[in-house]
Specification:
Elements: H1 3-18, H2 23-30, H3 34-41, H4 49-58, H5 63-82, E1 90-91, H6 96-103, E2 106-111, H7 122-129, H8 138-142, E3 148-154, H9 155-158, H10 168-178, E4 184-189, E5 203-206, E6 210-214, E7 219-222, H11 225-240, H12 245-259
Parallel strand pairs: 2-3, 3-4
Antiparallel strand pairs: 1-7, 2-5, 5-6, 6-7
Helix pairs in contact: 2-3, 2-4, 4-5, 10-12
Length: 264
Amino acid sequence: MNDQLKELGGTLRHARKSDRCSGSALASRAGVTQPTVSRVENGQRVASVQSVEKLIAALPFSADEAERLTSMAREAYALASDNRRVDSGVSLVPDAARKLVTAASQVRGFQSATIPAPLRTREYTTAACGDSGSGPDWGKALDNAGKSFEFVVTESALRTWPGSGEFMTAQLEHLLTLAQRPNVSLAVIPWGVGLPVMPPHGFTVCDEAGVLVETFTATMTLTGSEHVTAYRDAFDALAAVAVTGDEFRRVIECVAADLTRFIQ
């Protein structure tokens, strides 16, 4: 851990507590997420130094102290960037994704265009990807009661499908079945709800260890802390505007009813 970031985090935590301000209240005041506050105070890197600067500005520091802390943050982030290769923390090794999923106790994923891979039926997978058997064994992972899974999809992902889509009724029923598992949480962002962030692709976050990003030709794994933090923050923001439980079921049932107009 960078000593400057550790010192900076401790200073910000002390100032927040002296101001009798909770982590969530500071996050709201600064315009960042609560996990960002926690990571900064624990001396961990976040996606950008600008988030740290917002926290400094939101706390009651004198002008001189705020300037000192801002300079410290910029120096720490610049040093870390200078010491990293462009591809540091990025891997296209085929088995890297499988290892991340196997080791993770918490898996969280988002998709805006397709059903997330862990939630697909065999027929959907075949239509989308062919008969490729590469990647994590999601069926085995989901059966592990010691793991927790959270997925957020847009309603658009439920209303588009590969090929003719004759399997979609079964796929939607499969989602409702999975949602009843105690270790699985499913949520959907309905049409008409604005997205707080606009990820250019789907992603799966495995604990604090790494992120899986599916490209058109391979699954890329990102393990740099700045990558993991950025994707975890994005997931938190997307989950905050998604619906779960009975509302999730109602969206699924509405999509299923509309299927009859498109799939014969």
